[in-house]
Write a structure and sequence with these properties.
- It is a single chain.
- By secondary structure, the protein is α+β, with helices and mostly antiparallel strands.
- The chain folds into 3 domains: 78 residues, RNA-binding S4 domain (Structural Genomics Hypothetical 15.5 Kd Protein In mrcA-pckA Intergenic Region, Chain A, Roll); 82 residues, Pseudouridine synthase (2-Layer Sandwich); 144 residues, 2-Layer Sandwich (Pseudouridine synthase), CATH 3.30.2350.
- Helix content is 17%, strand content 29%.
- The model has no long low-confidence stretch (mean pLDDT 87).
Length: 310
Amino acid sequence: MLIVTKKYTHTKAEVVLLVEKEEEGQRLDEFAMGYLKSLSRESIKRMIRGGNISIISRQTKNAPHSRIVESDKVIIFYINENNFFDIKNTIVFESDDIVVINKPAGMLSHPTGRHLFNAASVLIEEYCNHKIYPVHRLDKETSGLLCFAKNSKVATNLRQLFDSNQVIKKYYFLTKISDQTRLCEGVIDNNIDTDRLSSISLKQKIDKSGKKSKTVISSIETFKDYILGVAYPVTGRLHQIRVHLASIGYPLVGDTIYNDEYSEEQYWLYINEGNQPELKLFCFYLEIPNFVSLKLEKPHHWPIGRQVDV
C-alpha cells in the first residue's frame, strides 16, 4: 500500500491509502490490518461498519468482506471527542530552529497504530502552525525532554548529531532494591536485539548477535524499597535503558514489558484498557552541541530523591 495523504490534528486523524497491484482481491478488513497492525480484526470490522474505514475511489459496498482492486483509495479516519491536551504548558525551550518539550508519560512522540491522538509531534505542529520535524523519540511510557526541529535543514543537522552519538541525554530512573543490596554501577554494554518470540512486537532482549549498545548507570540515593539512579545511554537503541537495567536484575518501576511483576497478558490488558502504570524513567538532561543544553528537576511525585549535578 502507498500513503496518498496523512493528516493529524488533536481532533481528527485521517489517512488515505492506495491499493497496489499485489493487494488486489484482498478483503477490506485484511487490507486495513496492514496499516492498523496494533488493532484486532474485530476492531477493524467495527470501524468499517461504523464508516471509519471505506473505499472512496468508487461506488461500492463498504463491508469487512468487500474486495479491493488495484488503484482503489481507502480512507481511514478517527474523531477524537475528549482528552484534549494543552501542549503549550510542556514547552521548556523554543528558538527559531527548535522547540523542546517536557513530554508527559503516556504521550506518544509520534502518532502510530491505535495511538493517533495527543501525540507530541501533532500537537507541536498545531502549536507552531507549520510543519515540524521529529529528530529523536521517547518511548510512550517515558517522560522528559523531547526535541523537534522547525525546518528541514535543522532537522538534518540534528539527526546527524543524534546518529553519531554526539547528543548527551541523561535519565532519572527508579527501581526496587533486589536481593543484591545495591545497584551495580558502571557500564552495561550488552548487545540488544528484537525478541521475536514475544507477543509484544516492540519487546527487545539481550543477544550477542544484536546491535552494540552501551549505557552508563549510577546510583544516587536509596530510600526504603527504592533506588534512584541516573542512566546515560551512549547509544540509542529501542528500550535500551529498560532492557539493560532489567538484564542486571533491576527492572524499572512501572515497566510492564521488562518487569517480571507483569505478565504479557497483563501488558495487553493495560494496553486495551488504557491504564498503564507510570514508567519511572525521565529524561532530565539534554545537551545538543551548538543548539541547547537543558536540565529539569526530578518529577516531584516520585517517592524519593534529591537532584543530581551533571
